[in-house]
Amino acid sequence: MSTIRRTALVVGAGPGGSTAAYYLAKHGVDVLFVDKETWPRDKICGGVYVPALYPMLKEMGAYDEMIKYQACEITEFRLIDRHEDYVDMRTAPAMIATRRFTDDWIRRAAIKEGADFMENFEATSLIMRKGVVKGVHGLYHNQPMDIEADVTVIANGSHSELTRQLGLFPDDPDLTMYCFRAYVDGVEGLAPHMAEEYYVPMGLNGWSPICTTWLNPHYGGKQAVLGLTITEKALRETGLSSMEFYEYWKNNTKFGQERLAHATLIDKFRGWRLPGSRKLGKGVVPGAIAIGDSIGAAETAFEYGIPSAMTGGKIAADVIAECDKKDDFDFSELSKYQPLAEQALNPSLGFNAMFRDELLNKEEVMKDFFRYVKAQPGYPEIMFGDTAAKYMMEVLHLDLGGNASNQ
Ligand SMILES: Cc1cc2nc3c(=O)[nH]c(=O)nc-3n(C[C@H](O)[C@H](O)[C@H](O)COP(=O)(O)OP(=O)(O)OC[C@H]3O[C@@H](n4cnc5c(N)ncnc54)[C@H](O)[C@@H]3O)c2cc1C
Q: 97-132 in b/e burial notation, b at 16+ Cβ within 10 A?
């Protein structure tokens, strides 16, 4: 069996791993990043990139490509409740792009910056010595191979066996969403710059936890990314398959009937586990930092996880670069990651969780929120994030405690 030795190893070349590799290379750290897939690869996702990511994407040189090939820019947002009442609001402009391409641009930016990359390497377990992560055992083109490293960044997404091995894997059925995605053609009535999010009346024990369908327009709105999201808890209660959920929405709701009357699915629904958090979970253990979906760092109200993954990747790289300068990868040094990442990520994770728990999941509150939104001066030319924050403080008397929307 062959063994490779590097200073830093990054497992996973999604947005989190590739961002970590990019900044590690930029800091001059000897880094290898690996992925089990042959690239470019698809990732099931709505493909929304919030503007908070633009500075990083620009620095990497990926932004110009993304803008050139983006499927759409979203500037408006329609929220539809279970009774099919709705409100429209503005959001900070966010781009929608296909992950097959965007993830590849970020990966290529890391390679251009000097990171070494190996595809078709599947990490199977962690190399542990005296309780310290020392790299991974894996399979390279199905042949056993070890990669040893002073520090390992675990960024292999929401099915990670590696964070499971460390006890960091998130498993809360109320915060774990099962998200299904398909591309559709022939959509009717979808405005070209408006994303729509529908809360579906699935009637679970009188009131459902989050069950949503969403449409993100592509190429002028005739095409769209269609998504279904349901929590693991709700999925267990209903026993619904993604097709049943889709058929229910398409045939039994006004918007489903209108939007999809003449629509065809371009591809099949494909599902993916997406664990979310109310606040960032523990990501540091001796010898390793885990980021992104591997520790369930996605936001819980709108399923955004790219910001947590990329921001976590950058902070991990900055901390590891300092360790490299001092040639000290001790747990105490790596632990500097945790408070920095919490400071950067907890405001939007917290805001999303409050919005979900206190508003989206409470029928009467959501109705009242709609009344409030429609009564705002200037409606519908008002910002979603600001208006939601104002409602939560003024009407629900919630202490936002520094939490803030990134939309
Ligand atoms: C339907 C759906 C819609 C979503 N919509 C949005 C959205 O619009 N905007 C948004 O911000 N977020 C969205 N998300 C969330 C977002 O997709 C994730 O949060 C984000 O991809 C997390 O990035 P990551 O780098 O942590 O993991 P990933 O993107 O999952 O990347 C992990 C990488 O690790 C590799 N890998 C896995 N196991 C191994 C292994 N053992 N060895 C080596 N490599 C391995 C995989 O091949 C993959 O390339 C959505 C998610 C879903 C499911």
A: bbbebbbbbbbbbbbebebebbbebbbeebbbeeee
**200-231 confidence digits (pLDDT tens):** 766 544 444 456 788 888 877 788 999 988 88
Pocket mutation for ligand 1, best pick of 19, 34, 45 (most atoms within 8 Å of C-beta): 45
CATH tag for 2-68+98-170+276-352 (out of 3.20.20.100, 3.90.340.10, 3.40.50.1370, 3.50.50.60): 3.50.50.60
Contacts of 195 (CB under 8 A, 6+ apart): 48, 74, 76, 77, 78, 91, 96, 214, 215, 216, 217
- SS3 assignment, position 148: strand
Q: Which atom of ligand 1 is nearest to the CA of 124?
A: 41
Q: How far is the CA of 157 from the centre of ligand 1 (A)?
A: 5
Q: Per-10-residue mean pLDDT for the chain, 407 residues long?
A: 96 98 98 98 92 95 86 90 92 91 96 98 98 98 97 98 96 87 92 88 50 81 87 79 82 90 90 92 98 96 93 98 98 98 97 91 91 98 96 96 84
pTM: 0.96
**173-275: which CATH number, 3.40.50.1970, 3.30.360.10, 3.40.50.980, 3.30.9.10?**
3.30.9.10
C-alpha 85 to ligand 1 mean position (Å): 32
Which ranges in the chain are annotated with CATH 3.30.9.10?
A: 173-275
Element (H, E) at 215: strand 211-218
In the chain, CATH 3.50.50.60 sits at: 2-68+98-170+276-352
